[in-house]
Amino acid sequence: MSVDAAIRITEVLLACAFLQQSAEHMRSGRDERVLHATRIALCLLLVVGLWPQWTLLALLLLSLVMLRRYDGPYNGGSDRMGLLALFCLCAAHFMPSARWREYMLGYLAAQLVLSYFLSGWVKVVNPEWRSGRALRDVFQFSAYPVSEDLRRLAHRPRLLLGASWAVIAFELAFPLALITQVTLIAALGVAALFHLANACLFGLNRFFWTWIATYPALLWLQHRLF
Question: pTM of the predicted model, to two decimals?
């Protein structure tokens, strides 16, 4: 995969992620509808490939307006990752050479690897995650689960302990997936299923689409390095 192909695929996937996010706001107040309708229009331009350089710049500027409007990335990590990907893609289009475009895409890929590894590190140093209590609290007390039946999992400590350590082990070992293309594809498949499960169980749908959008950058980087 060439750097230009990876950038293009990432653009389309990120635009689709933004479309899904903005669609949620189309029943909000008039000001919000205007803001997100503008974003939807720009995303459609990006999907079809019209003026990608300037469309990305407009999306980036609009994202800064949205940061001010919502007093920061109100949806947390998914908004931060989306903004990072948007910045890297926009910068890549304005770089003077292919090498600098590679630097921008490589930086995005490196941040993706770190997002998994650091998430695992935060968990492994937290005694509540090591004991399974953190997951128990999620199911027992959190407002996230969409079904009350899911709360019954809080009464299965062995299952939650195993699930906690499975997540920790996977996230800490994620950088090792870069060794071969096969291991990376397998790791990304597991990660995608993890995000999908979170979307279905807890409604964290933005994480799924935003993280999926960055996967082409990492596939390109693995091919480029190895």
Answer: 0.90
